[in-house]
## 1
Amino acid sequence: MNSMPWWQSTIIYQIYPRSFQDSDGDGVGDLLGIIERLPYLVELGIETIWLSPIFPSPMADFGYDISDYVNIDPLFGTLDDLDRLIADAHAHGIKVILDLVPNHTSIEHPWFVESRSSRTNPKRDWYIWRDPAPSGGVPNNWLSEFGGSGWQLDWLTGQYYYHTFLAAQPDLNWRNPDVRAAIYDAMRFWFRRGIDGFRVDAVWYVIKDEQFRDNPINPDYKPTSPPNHALIPLYTADRPEMQEVIAEMRRVSDGFSDRLLIGELYLPIERLVAYYGRDLSGVHLPFNFTLLTASWRAEVLADLIREYNEALPPGGWPNWVLGNHDRPRIASRIGEEQVRIAAMLLLTLHGTPTVYYGDEIGLKQAQIRPDRIRDPVELNVPGYALGRDGCRTPMHWDASDHAGFSITESWLPIGKDYRERNVARQRSDANSLFQFYRTLIALRRGSQVLIRGALHSIRAEGDILTFLREHEQERIAVALNLSAEPATVSRMLDESDTCILLSSFSERRAEILAHSIELGPNEGIILGRRK
Ligand code: NOJ
Ligand code: MG
């Protein structure tokens, strides 16, 4: 068996550190809390964790506004705590990935403090400064992702600076080689400390048009869409120069053995795959978010899986994501009845899967009372259902007060259903979603065909999505019923000794199949040769 890099066979689990486990009773999760919960991740079968930012930050965007790239925010702990987390995770066989935020810093980062201090400051050019338009006002029509113009006037020097996100997150100028060198140094700092990789934030925004041309009007814009959709981000995102930047980042990571780069990219499939880079010289895994927004219909999913499969460059390793800290929880998006189908899909497709914390117990999008809203996007651009607090609420560990997350009130409210829906309860219930995830993960980890097997014969038959995985002599078939009606599919494997390896209703395991397969409402099955 030829060996494959660890990140191709791994399962990634995203931790939003503020909400995983609080160890010091301040209502906010922290690094020692994550260390405490490593045995849980081992129990679940997780092999890699990715932590959203833990660096010093004024927390205007909850850590995605960094004021020091090479330290830990006291809210989360210390550098020693991180060293311990890395060592303990590794001792448990778990890799650790951190978040790299190269596009912007916090307004409080000393680089920006210097940069804004005068037009002649040596760091002036580290950020994107422009004069007002000749008629006064903003330099061009570029919009912020988080509401309003992307330009902020700084009275001190009379120029505007550009921010893709909040005004408190000024964009770095990636055309300046010193900026690149500084970020690459930060990467090396963490690689030397032993981390296994980075998820690179907002990577498709990093370079902006050198001529600052206006973005074109979007002719398909509907007033019900967020205001920034009024323009096509032609000159502010996915610029050709990004190829060079991702290749440089890759060279930095290739300076260390066995490290991983994942790119955050919300782009159509044909543009997404460009971030593997020429001859795979870019990020190892451009995050594939197609399942995050797809409407949950067999035909739609079959099309997008096929499209993604066909768009991959030779040697490009696929990956799949069902949830993250920016999008509504899967359980609320597709309905509780379908969460096992989603899990089965995620863990039987070809490519590295990413599980968002809490999805393994079916956490729902929490309804946040107006006075508890914390997300700056919801506060800046209300009314478009963009709020991200509802998918960032604390993990439900048990039925005790504060859900075992903290000993005090948590920074975001705990989901209303935590006394019924929590890890402790699902651990002791053989039929729970948590146990189903464990079984699926164990099945995947032990199966060469699920890890390596080619994906083909992707079909939609009515509400049933089916596909095959094949590796050497082994074949596995997957059939997922996306509806609440029972349904029948034709037999998918010819072998006479085919049986159900796993059903979302466990009592069917090992059942031998006749010529057609009956699926119950919302049932998914994995078929293969009897062992
Ligand atoms: C993407 C991150 O996932 C999101 O949470 C953040 O607000 C923006 N990038 C800005 O860093
Ligand atoms: Mg804490």
## 2
Amino acid sequence: MMNRVGLISIVLLFLCHWSYSQSRTNYDEEQVPQFEIPDPLMTFSGEQVEDAKTWLEKRRPELMDFFTTEMFGKIPGELGMTSFKILEEGPSTVYSGALRQQVKISIIKGNSQLDFNLLLYLPKGKTKAPIFLGPNFYGNHSVTLDEKVVISDAWARNNPSYDISDNSFTETSRGVRSYRWAIQDIIDAGFGLATFYYGEIDPDKNDFSDGIHPFFYQSGQSRPKNGEWGSIAAWAWGMSRAMDYLQENEKVDSDHIIAFGHSRLGKTALWAAANDDRFAAAISNNSGCGGAALSKRKYGETLAVINKSFPHWFTENFKKYGHNEEKLPVDQHELISLIAPRPVYVASAVEDRWADPKGEYLGAYYSGKVYKLFGKSVLENPEMPEIHQPLHQSVAYHIREGKHNVTDYDWGQYLKWASDVVMKEK
Ligand code: GTR
């Protein structure tokens, strides 16, 4: 008979093996489980949606509701921009033909006030420029070498490679991310760029005592309730407050403001555009898990992993789907379809396996069913295209060589698509 030590060893061995297999990242297509793609045109009660009207009146609201309460979280109240102030404006010496504007946007509720700075570069010659609006990771001063750009005093993530320490930005990080923002190309194509530091809306850490969340706390409350918003929803809300201001800027073509974001901010751009139809289109660059990639594929980053590493990004409810993707009645193609009929662009990078390029393609591909209801052009092939073979429809996609990043190649595609597709929409 096996003694107790033997039995305990076997149990421990089993547990180790189980936790190892649960935590190992899957990069093997053979290990992708069999699963059914939830039908965006079938209501939760099993009714088939056959036209755009039923989609808009019945199916879209229930999906919106699901993504709100189970994934990103609900904003506990209404809150818009209270005021704005032009801090500074002038011709840029860094980009030819560009006008720079810096605007402080304020949101006030009771005794609380949140300010964030929007940096704009606009093409000088245009009376009203279409623009890309995208939050940034390291402060407005990091996207450009332009010395006039104000350095944020918000909480910053320390990063030795950018000389960022003591959780604050200094001159050392000016321009460190300029390679990700093809500002001169954007201006030359007749577009503008608007960007803000996402940490001014909510610092990216599992701490809900700062940023916008406390504006809605009742006495004694220190974090959002279950079903209420996490950080991604807060950053998306910030994009809408920037939009409030952009509606008032006479130099901006307010019918053509495109939500843009990379990675966690690519997840954010999709959610912002789903919630706010003032966005004419959305671009999600390498957005991966919780963005454009299908969760049920369990390839690269999974729900369990993202919820563990970033417990503050989604609402509490979302945690129950970790290691339990089968229970999800939706998948990310339905998040994308909430943006329909407005154009959407999903982009991947070959070496960015963590974000699951194939899952990102399929997310965009399966959203096509909804876009088709509106007569829009979609991705027709269930097989993903080759590298550098962009597909520029209303639902657009490309995969490029290289890593998790935003490159000039990406911007080249976005600019072309924005001119050829988005500008023709309205
Ligand atoms: C990773 C995270 C991804 C992605 C990325 C980023 O660490 O696992 O979901 O969002 O960060 O934002 O760069």
## 3
Amino acid sequence: MFTVLEEYDFQKDTEALVIGIFHQNQPFKGLLEELNQAFDGHLMNLVKAGDIEVGEKKISIVHTLGKTGAKRLFFVGLGRQKELTEETLKEAFGVLFKKVKATQFKEVTVALHTFVTDSIEEAKVARLLGEAQPLSTYEFEHYKKRPNVPDKQLESIKLISKNQEIKKELHTGYTYGKATNSARTLVNLPSNMLTATHLAQYAVELARKYGFEYEILEKADMETLGMGALLAVNQGSVEPPKMIVLKYKGKEEWEDVIGLVGKGITFDTGGYSIKSKAGIVGMKTDMGGAAAVLGAMEVIGETKPKQNVVAVIPSTDNVISATAFKPDDVITAMNGKTIEVLNTDAEGRLALADGLTYAKYHGARYLIDVATLTGGVIVALGTETTGAMTNDQAFFQQLVQISKMTGEPVWQLPITERDRKRVQNSKVADLNNSPGREGHAIMAGTFLEAFVENTPWIHLDIAGTATSTTERALSPAGGTGVMVRTLSMLVNEFKPE
Ligand code: BES
Ligand code: ZN
Ligand code: ZN
């Protein structure tokens, strides 16, 4: 996809030459000045007249009418130099690549240095561009009838730069973007096409591609290991449950292992505590946590950090039948704790309870769970910010710093002693899975804490952020692939305490 051109002259053929343009970067210098001269000063006139827009994320196209080898100039407006953030620059590249996709060009050339600012160096520009291209042009392979016209795709992006090191940055950005797209596709697949069995097959393919060790537990294995919480959720289903485990060894010794645990509910009807007609639609996305973990494992497979990781995905659907689990049932989780089921729709925390225990069993010394866990987190934080809970502030701060770089905001919710009492208020069992609607995002996280015990742990509730109803600069509506980049970058940068 990417080639670096050390030299560039205007006579070189290209469909489009892409140039970043800031507010008030006149008089033109360098490439812009040369181009301006080739057009007898008219480029500057176009900027003055507002035909070339310099505002953030504005794209202006100028046809060169044969005056240069480039057939067109694509100007990417960047606003004021001092105000440009990495996130806005990434979005500007997103808008650009959407435009390029609409034109169906096979190749474009980018003057990379025209995007550099005092705070964003060339290598960073390359990384953002590499990430924005796959993110912004992602499309879910839909099932609609297609017109019989071949689709032309962008095959080559040439970058003008003297710095050969940007190749690595481009590739890293691209890897993060591509893996996010893989997670989006998993989220977008309907539950008749993505069962727990399919999810396990996908994970095994990933493991084979990157040489991860893997283990897929079947129902009988779960019975032997006493995974009563995951089994209860699966009880009403004809689809077999799977406990998916992938191991990435980045060090000689199996130490400092980070456990990534993703909720893999392929469809959530709510069970006997059934969801409403409106609330049930979209519940194919209830495996967004699993998708984030698998996306992160794809980045980890590509970037090969010096860090051990075990990924654990408890997977099943949550459906109703004569055999389904019921409110009032008392079940026993793998760690021996008993749970009174007050609400079969609070199934994610049950599946994760056994997932967290199993990650510890596989040596996890740090735990991060990711789950579309509660409607409550959407009420609390909306759809832009992921809700987080933790028992270890230093560990959590590492994730917060990373999330600022990836542009995936997280916000911490508290756990108090009284919250702990509420999840332990069952008269018949150690825990109850639904202590009422007040602060129920917090209740869910507090329930999970009981399975983590003293292991440093972060809980990420992505119910609001795993999907989007609107198109954005870097994604269409549907699965967002949220947390793929944050989890994988955290693994890459992690410092054991
Ligand atoms: N999968 C849902 C949470 C969810 C809601 C995800 C909306 C995405 C969008 C979860 O299993 C659930 O049903 N949670 C209940 C918990 C309640 C019964 C305590 C909820 O949030 O209402
Ligand atoms: Zn539910
Ligand atoms: Zn659910």
## 4
Amino acid sequence: MADKRPNADCDDAAPDTLPLGLTSEPSETAARSRNSLNTLSPALERQLMVLSTVWDATRDALMVTDERNAIVAVNPAFETVTGYAEHEVLGKNPSILASGSHTAAYYEAMWAQLNASGQWEGEILNRRKNGVVYPEQLRIQLLRDPGTGELLNHVATFADLSLQKAAQRKMQRMASYDQLTGLPNQVLLRDRAEQSMAQARSGGYQLAMLVLDLDHFKAVNDSLGHAGGDELLRQISRALVNVAAPTETVSRRGGDEFVFLLPRVEIHALRLIAQRVLVALADPFVVSGREAVVSASVGVAVYPTDGADFDAMLNSAESAMYKAKESGRRCVRFFTEQMNQGARDRMALLGGLTRAADRGELRLHYQPLVNLNSSEVIGAEALVRWERPGYGLLAPAHFIPEAETTGLIVGIGAWVLNEACVQQRRWADAGLGHLNMAVNVSALQFRQGILERQVAEALSESGADPKHLELELTESTLMVQPEEVMDTLQSLKQRGVQLAIDDFGTGYSSLAYLRRLAVDKIKIDQSFVRDITVYADGAAIVRAVIQMARSLGLRTLGEGVETQVNRRALQVLGCDYAQGYFFGKPMPADEFEQWVSRSHQTPLARR
Ligand code: C2E
Ligand code: MG
Ligand code: MG
């Protein structure tokens, strides 16, 4: 009943009469009111005694103020709730209890309603004498003279809600979180999943649910004892939470079953994510000094393909989890069979690729690079192939993307650099002329000085001349970590290595930026070379690139030249070099050598 009205300063209003004649025992006013009881009828006297007892005994705080809103009476519960004794508040305005949490408009609305209807009820935050703010359920009623309608008193009743609120919060927590592990329980999981599904629907993306069931947990549990089993579950929960991203929910369904909710996933990354969960459990846990080894079976369902709502998704993920159990546990299965097949293929490919270099299954093919003006061969681009047992010779498109996402490209890249440098040196020794060797490098090789080390090693072991080694990088590589890339390129340049930008035009880099990186050559992407003769605009783009490159002192090479028309067009536009099936396809080293000897006999210009 804090009164924020400007005229409500009633501190000086002494309580000379108590309109209800009800007060608590030890106060002065109580004695006065008891004297006045002597003149009342026995029935009224009894009634007032009852009311007086209620006033003292009720757990609700009671506060009466006069017509100017100065406090004239409070009951013992008032002191319990607010911490103020009666003598501290008599004559004061109830605003001494205000917590400052409500706006002036809030109090204005309260008073407007009080004046209009004679009562107000609501939840309000007040401040105890010790400064603590607490919630209370407050009810205020106006008392008017029945005859004149004149305002006599305000009667406020309020109950402290703090305990009730704390209990409510505890209940809510108990209803949403698993008691043992503190993880969200299924109620909260359902809630979050339904929200995420709605977002995925409107955003047009996919969501995944992973059900994870510990393998042979019963046996582990039995051996550790009940308390040990509980401790293990808590440790497992922490391990799972550690591998989850902040947006993901890890929940416990009960027993030894956990559910991961991934609110937004790319399908191709899902396998690795699921694998990450298994890896989280790979190290043994230590419970009361004993090691416990656990593994899990994981089932994956993808929304909306595998289920239209929470229950359907959970069912699908669970049945996938049972498939994982059937396939020998400690593995991941997808609900959609096709994804299992895709995942199995990918795992087999990665397994083979990991050992491909050691098993000698990688090959390099060499594609000629030609000077457009002199028609001389200036070198070769080394292009990797994988002789995969049972599959034949695989082109890079079948394994380089996987190698890049898994990091295997770093090892493959090292092998390619060594092999290419060895080959370059062999050709030089065999008197094939000073052929340049172009080698493709991936963004991952730029990390932590890997590329510099690999190049240094390849050069020193082969004895190849750095100025005949040309590294091809793509525009996207340059964009990933510009700072790191810049440093690496600088030190490679100092070694004398040449740099080329591969597939130029497919990214967003500007030629001026490339110049700053000390790049020597631009390889214009095949798509533009093909367009030269298809659209008039196509020629205009290539001409612009060539002219700008020239003005910056950069050399240009046209990729994917397949016809004499392509070749002529590039030459007319002022391009320096070319590469493409028209001159020669990528071929093994010995074929390439024969090709070079032939080209010396039959100049390329006449082909
Ligand atoms: P890239 O570096 O742009 O290589 C040129 C690709 O175009 C080669 O495909 C080549 O065979 C193909 N090509 C050349 N001339 C023509 C033509 O006239 N017409 C057509 N249609 N295609 C032509 P390939 O060998 O399949 O290699 C594909 C890509 O794989 C390469 O593109 C390169 O980005 C990557 N790659 C190859 N070897 C390596 C490697 O050792 N390391 C890395 N990181 N990537 C590699
Ligand atoms: Mg290339
Ligand atoms: Mg290219």
